[in-house]
Design brief:
Layout (H helix, E strand, L loop, with lengths): L2 E5 L3 E2 L5 E8 L9 E7 L6 E7 L4 E3 L7 E6 L4 E6 L8 E7 L2 E2 L3 E5 L2
Parallel strand pairs: 2-11
Antiparallel strand pairs: 1-3, 3-8, 4-5, 4-9, 5-6, 7-8, 9-10, 9-11
């Protein structure tokens, strides 16, 4: 059974870098043809796909976030990580890591001074 677990700070100050990690159990992030995504949902809004990293390590980003986001992986930890630079209160959201049809439970991130 694939399980994904997000981890990271619940509170980040404006202009700082947000770093979230997703740890996979019950599978491998290098399994052929799987893509590992970060998705977020701001309060009162819909889901927003932020980007993904492939089984081979290639990264893909939403055009809206490409200049601020970076997704990397650590295969030894079976983990992939989102870095989001220069956060603002608009980045306040529940952040999910996911691979179809699985997702983590989500982690709340608030950007506030």
């Amino acid at each position: 059974q694939v399980q994904l677990q997000e981890s990271g700070p619940g509170l980040v100050k404006p202009s700082q870098t947000l770093t979230l990690s997703c740890t996979l159990s019950g599978g491998s992030i290098t399994t052929n043809f799987y893509y590992w995504s970060w998705i977020r949902q701001p309060p009162g809004k819909g889901l927003e796909w932020m980007g993904a990293i492939s089984y081979s390590g290639s990264s893909f980003y939403s055009p809206a976030l490409k200049s601020r986001a970076a997704i990397s992986r650590d295969t030894s930890k079976n983990q992939f990580t989102l870095q989001l630079d220069s956060v603002t209160p608009d980045d306040t959201a529940v952040y999910y890591c996911a691979t179809f049809p699985f997702s983590g439970q989500g982690t709340q991130v608030t950007v506030s001074s």
